[in-house]
Design a protein that fits this description.
By secondary structure, the chain is α+β, with helices and mostly antiparallel strands. It has helices at about 25-40, 125-140, 150-169; strands spanning about 45-50, 60, 70-80, 85-95, 95-105, 110-115, 120-125.
Length: about 170
């Protein structure tokens, strides 16, 4: 497998809505494997296909706290229910490097998805995993962590990343 370049702010592809995966085939499985390699290499705990420039509803995650990988591949993930309690986690994003925001989100959820074998599944998640799933599904819908900021703060961050993109071009 191989790593892929991660799309960074201000690239407009990050604001696009991803389309469903129509069938789980070798191309989708290779994309998932490459995304996992990219996520581990970054390093990160989650990655949405849009972050590597592919507008498909596919996310990969690994929030394990050990050296042993425990990857999750969720194809066409859809939040079925959200818990009533909330938690605040500091979130970062591989598409917005070196920037972190405290975000309040539901502390638990149930997500429906298709697994790597093409079978429909449901997963109950809480804590960091629930946060990571919500973060990555936001990406599939064109939403970024900076959208949780006030308009003024969001504009400042976007200007900073536009300037960095110009300076590196």
């Amino acid at each position: 497998m191989s790593t892929m370049p991660i799309v960074k702010l201000p690239d407009p592809v990050l604001r696009q809505t991803s389309t469903p995966v129509e069938r789980v085939d070798g191309d989708v499985l290779k994309l998932a494997a490459d995304m996992l390699d990219t996520m581990y290499d970054a390093p990160g705990i989650g990655l949405a296909a849009v972050q590597v420039g592919v507008l498909k509803r596919l996310i990969v995650l690994d929030v394990s706290e050990t050296d042993e990988p425990d990857p999750l591949v969720l194809i066409n993930p859809e939040i079925k229910s959200l818990g009533s309690e909330t938690r605040i986690h500091e979130e970062g994003c591989l598409s917005i490097p070196d920037y972190h925001i405290e975000i309040e989100r539901p502390a638990s959820l149930v997500v429906g998805y298709i697994d790597r074998d093409g079978k429909p599944r449901e997963l109950a998640a809480e804590g960091l995993l629930a946060t990571a799933i919500q973060h990555e599904i936001d990406h599939l819908n064109g939403k970024l962590i900076i959208d949780f900021l006030s308009r003024l703060k969001r504009d400042i961050v976007v200007r900073k990343f536009k300037k960095m993109a110009r300076d590196s071009a």
